[in-house]
Amino acid sequence: MEDNKWIKVILHASAFFAPFLIPILFMLLIQDDRVKSLSIQALLFQVVMYVLIAISGVLSFILIGIPFLIVFGIMTIVVPIIGIVNAISEKDWQYPIVGRWV
Environment class of residue 23 by beta-carbon count within 10 Å: exposed (0-12), middle (13-18) or buried (19+)? Predict the structure, then answer.
């Protein structure tokens, strides 16, 4: 259980240094079903957030996307930090937006 705690912390923290590579590696290499599910959630969350930020960036040229760009940019930073805190305190947690899909 202690090993999975730090694996989950690394998985959440990977959003800041390898948002696609680490979740894919953990999904393929780790046998624990909970870690695999969290890896898929982390990967899907990053993909969805990058798509939403790109759409907001395009829409910011007509000013409607600026608030969305700010909100999605903040979410991309804050949500992994919440995941790290929950992993350290060993609480079960799912990513918003994509947590129900996995």
Answer: buried
What secondary structure does DSSP assign to the chain, as a single string?
A: -HHHHHHHHHHHHGGGT-TTHHHHHHHHH---HHHHHHHHHHHHHHHHHHHHHHHHHHHGGGTTHHHHHHHHHHHHHHHHHHHHHHHHTT-----TTTTTT-
pLDDT in tens, 72-83: 999 999 999 999
Q: Report the alpha-carbon distance of residue 76 to residue 49 in Å, rounded.
A: 7
The predicted-structure confidence for 2-37, as pLDDT tens digits, reads as follows 568 888 899 999 989 988 999 999 999 988 888 898
pTM for this one? 0.81
What does each C-alpha distance from 55 to 15, 62, 64, 68, 69 come to in angstroms? 20, 12, 11, 9, 8
